[in-house]
Structure formats: C-alpha cells, structure tokens
Amino acid sequence: MSSPFSSTSSNFIIQAVFSLFLTLIFSFIKIPSFFLHGLHTYIHPDDVTPANPSSSGIKAAIRRPGDTTSGLKPRKKSNDKFEFDESKAQIFRLKLNHNHLQSRLYFDQFRGVFNFTIVACSSLILHNFLPASKDSTGVIPNGTLIPILLGSLGICRVLIIITRVSFERSASKRSDKQLSVLIGCLATLIAFLIVLEVIPNWVFDFEFQSLDGYAKFCTAIFMGFVAGLFYVPATRFARAYWLGTDQIRCNLSMIYCGWFGRILLYFSYLLTVFTSLLWINPFADLIVNKNIKTKNIRYMNCLAGNVGMSRSDFEFFRSCCLLATGALNMLSLRVNLQMFLNEAVLSWYQRLHASKIPDLDYSRAKVFLHNHYLCLAGIQFFSPPALVLFFLGLSRINDNVLDHFPALCNLIPCSALMKEMCLFMGWWVVLILGVLVSASLALYRQGILYVS
To answer: So where does this one cross the membrane (predicted)?
Structure first.
C-alpha cells in the first residue's frame, strides 16, 4: 500500500484543509481577545461628587476630554482662595475583556491581521515538515503554492494596515510623521548604497549580483518605505522598554510589569540587536570558524581550542535567531500594550504632583487617547515581528514555484525574490528596529527625550 503522501497532490490537499480548518476555528474562537484579556486600562471618573445625593455616586466612563453634561454647572469659587478638590484627581483601573476590546478603534483590523498571521505562519511551518515530491513538477504537487500565497498576502496585508494607521491624525504627533518621512528618505539613500554595492561587500553578508537595475531600484525604495513606516512603532517599543524595565526609577506599583514581563522586554531587545549584527561581516567573522572546510572525523583534533562554527551551521544559527526574534517580539505584544496604557498613568501621576494646583486636562486627554487607540498600538507592535516571520518563512521555501510564471520572473529574478531577498528583508526589518530603538533609548538616557 502506498503512503498517502506519495500522491502528487496530497501536500496541496493537506495545506488547503489545514488552512481552512484554522480559519474556521479562529472565526469561532476569539484568539486576539483572549490574548489581550485582563490588561489593565485606566479611566478618569466622570463625576465624583454628583449634585444629586440619591444617585449612585462615582460614575466611571470613557468619554472625550472637554465633553460636559448640560445639567452640570461650574462651581463658583472665591478669588481669594482656591482649594484643589483631591477627589477630582482619582483614576480608576479596569480589566479589559472582549466587550471592551471590540469597542476600540481598529479592533476588527487587528483581529483580522492577527488571525491571518497565525494561519499563514502555520502553513509555512507545515510546509517544512511535509515530504516533497521530487518526481513531479508544477505549482500544485508539493503544496508550495498555498504557503507562498498566504505569506505574500500576509506581507501585503500587514503593510497596508500599518500604512493606514500611520495616517491616523490623533494617533501620533505631527513631528513623528515628519520624522518618519525623513527617516524613510535617509533609509532609501542608504539602501541604494547597499544594493548598488557602493558600500564594500565585506560590510554586509549579502550579494546582489542576481538583481538587475530595475530590481535594485525597487528593492531600495521598498527598504526606505519600510523604514519610514516602522519609525513610530520603534519609538513605541522604546517607550515600552523604558517604562517596563523602570529606567526612570520611579518605583510606582501602578506601572510595574512584573519579573516575567521585564525578562521578555530585556530578551526581545537584546536578541533584536544581536540578530541584526549577524549579517554584518566584522561581527560574523568572530563567530564563523573559517578553518572548518568539511565535516570529517580526522579534523576533530584540529578543532580543539578553536572558537566558532562552520559556515553551514552559522547560516542555520542566524536563521534560528531571526525566528526567535520575531516570535519573542510577538510574545511581548501583551507587555508592550500594557506599558502603552501605563504611559498614560505616568502622565496622570506627573501632572498630579507637578504643582499644588494641578491641571489634569492633558492627562485626561492622554488617558482617553491611549484607551481609544489601544488596538492601533497593537497593530504597530504586532506588524514588525509578523513581517519578520513572513519573510523568513518565504525564504525557507526551496521550490522555485514562481519559475512557472514567466511574466512575473521577467520583472525580478524568482530565485532572488523567494530566497535571498526575503531573507534580506527579514533582516532589514530587524535592523531598522534595533537601530531606531537603540537610538531612542540613548536619547532617553541623555535626557533629550522623556516620557510624559
């Protein structure tokens, strides 16, 4: 009896059934809500001292700053003495559930991209475990078409949604949008220097000989576009790390994230920086043992005292580091979002103790906006690691399926598109995050930037 995997289309059927099954399951199970369930959000009380004594008392509601009720009138106060009512400075903590989350802006987009990423990454992982059919040719036999389509659609979907949220007016400052454009232009210039090999080959461990001039131009523009998009997410990563690891030494229990959250923040940042260095030759030369030419038992005595690994082992090692970086940053999503919400609490605390007569209008607005744009921030935290996993998964596909589409391969070499360039873009996303987060943390350390 022949194995069920020996059929020419068995892998395609398995991939299709597996993807449809996951899609059906995620339509009933609310994975994003479960992942974010229990996060602490904060709201200002709507009315602490109501005019009607028979009312329930404190009313907590999330409403836009400046909204007033027609029945409430400002209390007249004497010009000689002004006493601050401390009861007006209260703030309430609320645990988020599905009903709270689905009322947030961009929740449907966050849920959609979250579920699609899990389905696509699962399909890419499954492809590496299914046996390949060496005797058959075409786009269907090995089931490669489905993970390629899901991975490519996942990249497009992530880029579209992160571009859309970047144009949200109140989600980020105007200066941040201007800096995003500036960084995108600078990154495009640097990208041209890299792909045109103006920068010497001994700096970066990538070769671009297989790309023609048009492909190099498109690659450089795309690299600059990605760098500009990820400036604001990188600054949010930096602020979350700065607050989560308590670099400001405030010792406030309200913004404490716990030992496990701190470990995630420390390791995700350190691994991001470490992985970004693995494709830089001066650093990679410290790890690769160039004396190892082949794996043979007679060379075992020569390896004693040598530090490093073979070239093939090093290729596998840095792919694993790229995978771990994407997965760890995705696991840190919950901690990063909690720090995003705690940033508003820190602003409230600072404004409350800034003077004897504090003005809480700014902190009230900040608390509202951080509640309102919670899922938008979730998209910004989720998009970079999702792109890293997509690019890495596509780079691990060995079947040149796109060779069967001559029209597409005339635009850009398919082998470079599926392997070299996907791996390069995955590393580029990690490099952009590492550089921008490190630069932001350095500015925080010098006191040029501060969280408020």
So the answer is: 12-29, 112-130, 145-167, 179-202, 214-234, 255-280, 316-333, 373-394, 425-444
